[in-house]
Amino acid sequence: MLESLFFKNKDKDLIIKSLNNYMEQLKLHFDLSEEEIDLIIKIVSKKRNNKKWWQFW
Questions:
Q1: Domain for residue 30, yes or no?
Q2: Would 17 be classed as within a structural domain?
Q3: What Cα–Cα distance (Å) separates residue 6 from each residue in 22, 43, 44, 51, 53?
Q4: For residues 26 and 32, is the Cβ–Cβ distance under 8 A?
Q5: Is residue 27 within 8 Å of 41, Cβ to Cβ?
Q6: DSSP H helical segments within the chain, as ranges?
Q7: Is the pTM of this model over 0.70?
Q8: How many domains, the chain?
């Protein structure tokens, strides 16, 4: 329900596609595995403290 307040289905699909593309670029550029990318996402999610994701890269 909360999710529907922020995103329309079209926006949600676009966000998912964009994130997947970004993850692919991380894999290629930094030679990371799926597990390493998952770990990075978890670490950033825990540490972000209301900051936007791009403030960490």
A1: yes
A2: yes
A3: 21, 23, 21, 17, 17
A4: yes
A5: no
A6: 2-6, 9-30, 34-47
A7: no
A8: 1
